[in-house]
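User: Some background: our group keeps a shared notebook of sequences we're curious about, and every so often someone picks one and asks for a predicted structure to add to the entry. Today it's my turn. The entry only has the sequence so far, pasted here. Could you supply the structure so I can complete it?
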Amino acid sequence: MRYTFLLYSDPAMAAGMTEEDWAKSKEIYGQYIGALQEAGVFIETDWLHPADTATTVTLAGGEKRVQDGPFAETKETLGGYFAIDVPDLDEAMKWAEKCPHVHYGKLEIRASAMGSV
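Assistant: Of course. Here's the predicted structure to add to the notebook entry:
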């Protein structure tokens, strides 16, 4: 079963990070990715640019609307994701608890709906 971990955090937390802080963070996430790969559950991951660089598009109501920035103004924004392949939600939760992100942000777990609807 494919699960996606959506990583949310307050972008203000990153504002004061030094190059050394970023290097340490990349090392910690690299170790987590390595553990996922070694376990054979890793599918993919991505790290997103800040939400204020987003463009939101909708055709709802038949009219095209384009908005600079994220869909909603919130304190916590989506910063990245991991996709993994594990047997069930219990196993996904075990991997979520090992993700470095849970120590300073929120991690939302969603099962893939492809093939089930």
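Suggested note for the entry: The chain has three helices and six strands. The chain has one domain: 2-111.
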